[in-house]
Amino acid sequence: MNIYIYLSHFPHNAKNINDGLSKAVHGLASGLVKSGVMVVVLCESFPNEDTSFISPTGYEIKSFANHIQTRPSFNLSPGLKQYIRTQMDGDSLVILNGIMHGRVCAMSRSLKKNKIPYIIAPHDPYNPAFFSKKFILKYSFWHLLEKRILGQALGIQILDSRHAQWLKKLKIKTPILTTPNGFSPQDVFPETSLKWGENETTKLFFLGRMDTDNKGLDLLLDAFSQITVQENIHLTFQGPDAGDKQSLQAQAKKLFIENKVSFLEPDFNKSSSAIIKEYDIFCIPSRFEGFSLAALEAMLAGRVLLVSEIAGIAPHVEKCGCGVIVTPGVSSIKSGLIELLKCRSEWQEMGLKGREYALNHLHWDKIATVALDNYKKLLT
Q: Are 151 and 196 part of one and the same domain?
């Protein structure tokens, strides 16, 4: 079996992998190679020429020039179309990464035309919160395109088994396989480098896109503002602005907590784990969330977590007891923060439980082995 993994953008030399989707693809591809499979990551570049590169972990990266930069685009690179026609066969399996993505639609059409089986990996759940923003656009996309793409797929790869319920409610009958996100060796720091409870001011942290509708950051700000009088705490947001940074800053000012909240630009010179381990409590208050690699990296850094029940990592956090699970609402988030602040003396024990659980259960090599078995079953 030859496995091809498609996403629209990927670092052409497997260096400077910073965004969650690219990290997930890199981890899965690396793990599959260790399982003895040939893996090629397919992506498109603008407007460079076609390139090919072997990653340090052994998978091949093929980047195809695509001069069409309009968004959303349903146009594939001519080189990629030719590659599908000439290089893939019945022994190929393609994993398409993306949810309601124009080029994923185009890829599915091309693969269907050439009788190449594919799996869809949406990375987000199709729950009501996902559809709430840009409802008309997403609802139209779903009925005109996405539903058919999922229906024609060999399988749908989800990050959390609970996400299957939304597909069933949407009457999707395609086989479902659960493949959580994992970690790579470079995400792990020695335990001796980790510290707990030494900050005079308790430092809360969010790392990711500043996207209010998705990440629930407005809820976190409201909840945080209600406990700042009683507690010596500071909240930091760090990550790329998805359009909501200014409104979050305005919200902090309106709540009179602007001196207790910081907004930082992404730091691509440090690993996420290196950044996270300097804080005390890691927060994921999302309204909808696939998994959250940043939360996994927080577990590896021995941090305690406040995690929305929606997030795919929530069952893992609950199982090992390294944090509190909340509903995406102000009252629940406030209660969760208070609970974590009260158990400061237990942070190290909780953090080490989370770290041990992640090391034992969420390594990409283990995840890829299970995923490969599932792929083989689908093809038989």
A: no
Q: Say if residue 122 is in the same domain as residue 214.
A: no
pTM listed for this prediction: 0.92
Overall average pLDDT of the 88-97 stretch = 94
**H-type helices in 202-277, by residue range?**
212-215, 217-225, 245-254, 272-276
Going by pLDDT thresholds of 50, 70 and 90, the confidence category of residue 299 is very high
Residue with the bigger pLDDT between 198 and 70: it is 198
Query: Which residues, including other chains, have CB under 8 Å from residue 285's CB and lie 6 or more apart?
Result: 206, 215, 216, 217, 219, 220, 223, 306, 308, 326, 328, 333
User: How far is it, in rounded angstroms, from Cα 296 to Cα 173?
Assistant: 30
CA gap 38, 34 in Å, rounded: 9
Total number of domains constituting the chain: 2
> What pLDDT is attached to residue 62?
94
Taking each helix axis as running N to C, give the angle between helix 102-113 and helix 78-87, from 0 to 180 degrees, rounded to the nearest 10: 30
Q: Is 51 exposed, middle or buried (0-12, 13-18, 19+ CB in 10 A)?
A: middle
CATH number at residue 215: 3.40.50.2000
CA distance 183 to 203: 24
Its domain, for residue 112, covers 2-182+363-379
